[in-house]
Amino acid sequence: MSDLAVPEARTDTQRIARIELAETAPLQSPYAEADRQQAATDLLAGNAFSPVGLPSGPYVLHLAVREGRLVLDIRDLADAPLHAHLLALGPFRRLIKDYQMVVDSHEQAVTEGASEARIQAIDMGRRGLHNEAAELLQERLNGRVELDFETARRLFTLVCALHQRI
Hints:
Shape: elongated
Mean pLDDT: 85
Structural class: alpha+beta
Strand content: 15-25%
Number of domains: 1
Helix content: 40-55%
Number of strands: 7
Distance between the termini: 14 Å
């Protein structure tokens, strides 16, 4: 597992303080790995994550993809299990595939020295996919976990990274 943590100086409790990602294989490229690391860093720097019916956090979130499902294993800071949510990946498959294609296109454009306008157009497409996926993730977790839009966007990036590894 990849273990990422945020400093304990924060005082709010409805947040993810540490995230662990199941790792089964390395990511396809250093660019994709940098995207994953940035999403995890940004997520831990500021997020809103409030599981319904669980004691106050902060929380440790173990993310994995198993048997076609996204596993959100929510734990307390001592890593004791609190609750796991399983989400079918079917509704996300098109978005995951499109996101991976956009990341590959961005990497290729940067590597080949493409124009700034082309790189910005690719970035706009990536933001649009992020937004659509964040809305879907919030919808799928509705009534189970309350999370803000930026947290959902960053979690989607991490889901894509996990999906690449399988």
